[in-house]
């Protein structure tokens, strides 16, 4: 597990960009945290690290946004999803096992439908100010990514 303190939205985007540069085809990130914790902000950084030129906004009402960059970036928000049956209709396997990078906001709502390996990202308000990002690897590939991220983030990471 890796924890990183983030002073503001800019730091959250920078962390996302650094992480985005480490990601490869088929990588899946599950973004958790309460409303306003920074999930979309982190996704914007991921997109920048993946060299996406388009503006990335929350896909709350469209559920899925697809962006082209160094790799395809699939930004999914399941906050408004109405149960597991609706999730099945999204064809998530095509995203989870495709050639792009998939980031799912509110991914905890997909328990039982998630791939066996992914990077779990929990964003929370830090009582000392800013945010706290906690990363947990679910699989060997993600342990490697977290080790690289820890080296980039430095001793505070």
Describe this structure in words.
β6 (about 120-125) and β7 form a beta hairpin. The protein has helices spanning about 10-20, 40-50, 85-90, 90-95, 140-155; strands at about 1-5, 30, 65, 75, 100-105, 120-125, 130-140. The protein is an alpha/beta fold and about 160 residues long. It is about 30% helix and about 25% strand. It is built from five helices and seven strands. The chain has a single domain, classed as P-loop containing nucleotide triphosphate hydrolases (Rossmann fold, 3-Layer(aba) Sandwich), CATH 3.40.50.300. A seven-stranded mixed sheet has the order 1-7-6-2-5-4-3. The N and C termini lie close together (about 10 Å).
Secondary structure elements and pairings:
Elements: E1 2-6, H1 9-22, E2 28-32, H2 39-49, E3 64-67, E4 73-77, H3 84-89, H4 92-96, E5 101-105, E6 118-125, E7 131-138, H5 140-153
Parallel strand pairs: 2-5, 2-6, 4-5
Antiparallel strand pairs: 1-7, 3-4, 6-7
Helix pairs in contact: 1-2, 1-5
